[in-house]
Design a protein that fits this description.
With about 325 residues, the chain is of the alpha/beta class. The protein has ten helices and eight strands. It has one domain: Ureohydrolase domain (Arginase, Chain A), CATH 3.40.800.10. Helix 1 packs across helix 10, helix 3 runs parallel beside helix 4 and helix 9 runs parallel beside helix 10.
């Protein structure tokens, strides 16, 4: 497959100033209505380059529920985000028009209807040329997001930071769950095979054949054990194949070890530290991202909001990736 030319996002030229976070020296962080990074709430994609979108749905969970409350808690913890990234040397709010778009409307009683709603509402965002950055919610929402991305970009490459491959076929006879979205996306032709990279995989499986589907479709996999041994150079080597590709980034917070991110639905020991996940996300700089998500924050299992705080920081790092 030929690679698409890299299209760098150009900020929309509008007569109004860029949306900016509330200045914490004018209005304290603990005051006001919580929005992502204290940005204004602008549910109008025509005015945005990047739309930060909550997707409060967890009907696809198979163990601990609660990610439906993830967007709200991440908003609260994102009050601590400051506007300049000294590591990547970028101020994303100066470069891009970014705001809290609000939450998508979901149906807590129907996963199929929720998927339809997500795709329909994201189509409206993408139609206006804005990049969606979605905060879940469980990982089942990846499938309807990719359906919408495909409508406007065709098959895209996928970088997935996750403890689990999400390529199982079904749970209890059901095809849609947070353990199946990558498999469904491949079946529906939403991904530009073989440009799929999964980093952080670990833990027990149901059988030795669990990853056969991923291997058959030539998914590149870097286990947590391999990452701990070889570090970022191993990932850098694999990222070379993604240069020039339209790429979607999906970050499941359970890629991080539960010692650093206990507030998630399917915790798995042996994961990445907070420092490692920050470095990993920053290592993705320079790729051509057409959308991102951060999923599986389950606040009721958190400790002192450390998972939601980490998620808020990772959301900011993802935003900075769009500034190149």
């Amino acid at each position: 497959m030929s690679k698409s030319p890299v299209i760098r996002i150009q900020s929309k030229q509008l007569p109004e100033p860029h949306p900016e976070p509330v200045n914490a020296l004018d209005y304290p962080r603990f005051a006001g209505i919580p929005t992502f990074m204290r940005l204004p709430h602008i549910p109008d994609a025509k005015r945005l380059d990047v739309a930060l979108i909550g997707v409060p749905y967890d009907g696809g969970t198979s163990y601990r529920p609660g990610p439906r409350f993830g967007p709200r808690r991440v908003r609260e913890q994102s009050a601590l985000i400051r506007p300049y990234n000294p590591v990547l040397n970028v101020s994303p709010f100066d470069r891009l028009r970014v705001a809290d778009y609000g939450d998508l409307s979901v149906n807590p009683l129907s996963i199929e209807d929720t998927f339809r709603r997500i795709t329909t509402e994201l189509n409206a965002v993408l139609q206006e040329g804005a990049i969606p950055m979605c905060v879940g919610g469980d990982h089942s929402i990846l499938l309807p997001i990719l359906r919408s991305i495909h409508k406007f970009h065709g098959p895209v490459a996928l970088i997935q930071l996750d403890a689990h491959s999400d390529t199982w076929d079904e749970y209890w006879g059901i095809k849609y769950s947070h353990g199946t979205p990558v498999r469904r996306a491949i079946e529906e032709g939403l991904l530009a095979e073989p440009y799929v990279l999964q980093v952080g995989l670990r833990g027990q499986l149901y059988s030795a054949q669990d990853l056969d589907y991923a291997r058959e479709h030539k998914i590149e996999m870097v286990t947590a054990e391999e990452f701990h041994e070889h570090g970022l150079p191993l990932v850098h080597k694999k990222l070379k194949a993604f240069e020039g590709m339209k790429t979607y980034l999906s970050l499941d917070i359970d890629v991080v070890d539960p010692a650093f991110a206990p507030g998630t639905g399917t915790p798995q020991v042996g994961g990445l530290s907070s420092v490692q996940i920050l470095g990993l996300v920053r290592a993705l700089r320079g790729l051509n991202f057409v959308g991102c998500d951060l999923v599986e924050v389950s606040p009721q299992f958190d400790s002192a909001d450390i998972t939601s705080l980490l998620a808020a920081n990772l959301l900011f790092e993802q935003l900075c990736l769009l500034c190149d």
